[in-house]
Design brief:
TetR/AcrR family transcriptional regulator; 10 helices; about 0% strand; mainly alpha; Homeodomain-like_sf
Length: about 200
């Protein structure tokens, strides 16, 4: 009989969040339970209860974990784009992938359906911090333009909508699956061109 490796609280929490993320992507948000995550990482339900307090606490921590991971990736792409090393489409793809393949869209809809809207606060605040880092002058002045904030709002709403119903809607309209991404990239490119002309 082998004994389980003793993990630090940070390691235990991190492995639980990675397992929760994997469950979210593989089988959907309804499978992100304390019991399922505990089974996946070989820990007890009580151990996870100690770290997260409840299933709702686990989901909120997962939302925060996803938001930080996703936003770090997006900000790298934005920086590359600003330095001439990337494109608006790459930023769009990262945002859309975050909500689709990375599970943020499924988690968002699950939180809304289960009445756990406060679990979305980490996603919303992290996106807001991302935008403020990209456009600090907007964060300071809060001018009427709020150019980057408006672009972010459009991009996130498009990415979320596409993650939830994009495939079915594109199919029913006879459009290619990546039409929403193309539109988002075109909108972002046009907005950036307009902003840099002023």
């Amino acid at each position: 009989m082998t004994s389980r490796k003793r993990l630090t609280p940070e390691e235990s929490r991190s492995s639980a969040l990675e397992a929760a993320r994997a469950l979210l992507i593989e089988t959907g948000p309804q499978s992100v339970t304390l019991k399922a995550v505990a089974a996946r990482i070989g820990r007890t339900h009580a151990n996870l209860l100690h770290h997260f307090g409840s299933a709702s606490g686990l989901q909120k921590a997962l939302a925060e974990h996803l938001a930080k991971t996703v936003c770090e990736t997006i900000i790298e792409a934005v920086r590359a784009s600003r330095a001439g090393l990337g494109s608006a489409r790459e930023v769009v793809d990262l945002a859309f992938d975050a909500f689709d393949r990375e599970g943020a869209g499924a988690l968002t809809s699950w939180m809304l359906l289960t009445g756990n809207e406060d679990a979305l606060n980490p996603i919303i605040s992290t996106i807001h911090e991302l935008v403020d880092e990209i456009a600090p002058e907007e964060a300071e002045t809060h001018g009427d333009d709020m150019h980057v904030h408006k672009d972010t709002l459009s991009l996130v709403l498009l990415a979320l909508g596409d993650a939830l119903i994009g495939a079915a809607l594109a199919k029913s309209l006879g459009l290619p699956r990546d039409t929403a991404r193309e539109r988002a990239a075109a909108n972002l490119e046009a907005s950036m061109a307009e902003h840099y002309q002023n």
